[in-house]
Design a protein that fits this description.
Length: 195
């Protein structure tokens, strides 16, 4: 049932816990299964929903990236139902991916052309990969985590190089200006001395 939901584009209303439970129950009923969810499944749906609700409530997270990251809710729910270590181990790949994406997205300013922004594009790509590929192998999250970390490290390095070049250019421009002023002062001093 969750795999079927995972492939759909769910909006914010569809990702509240009661709506997820209703969608799962409806799917189970349509496919001849019992429609009553076990209490433990019900609890896991609530926990994952609370996790994403807290993430989406962060005012530093732009609405565009909230929509993208929220698409991970169903795959993360599937992980949580299979592997309860998601909640108890801070280094669980699914949990680390959520944290890494949230940290990268925090404070990001939405550009005019969203589709041309490298961070938005990479986050959307990583989320799409997880949504389309995750079935039951948590390595999908691990690979996505490595990919986003590699991207962010390259972006930090690129920003560092740009900052260094900008600083060197500013320092060079300052030296040229100081030399120009020194030459001007020397020319003026000699002109006054010659008079």
């Amino acid at each position: 049932a969750l795999s079927a939901l995972q492939q759909q584009s769910l909006d914010a209303a569809d990702t509240n816990p009661e709506r997820i439970k209703a969608l799962v129950n409806r799917w189970l009923g349509e496919h001849g299964h019992a429609t009553a969810l076990e209490q433990s499944v019900d609890d896991v749906i609530d926990l994952v929903s609370m996790l994403f609700d807290n993430l989406m409530a962060d005012p530093r997270l732009s609405p565009s990236l909230q929509v993208v990251i929220a698409r991970l809710q169903i795959p993360v729910l599937k992980v949580a139902l299979r592997d309860r270590q998601l909640f108890s181990h801070a280094d669980h790949p699914a949990r680390c991916l959520i944290n890494e994406l949230a940290e990268a997205a925090t404070g990001w300013t939405e550009p005019e052309e969203l589709g041309r922004d490298p961070l938005y594009g990479k986050i959307a790509e990583v989320v799409e990969r997880v949504v389309t590929r995750y079935r039951d192998d948590v390595n999908v999250f691990d690979n996505a985590l490595r990919d986003i970390r590699y991207f962010l490290e390259r972006e930090r390095e690129r920003a560092r190089v740009i900052e260094q070049r900008t600083r060197q250019t500013a320092e060079g421009n300052l030296r040229v200006e100081l030399a120009r002023e020194a030459v001007q002062e020397e020319v003026e001093a000699r002109l006054v001395a010659d008079l």
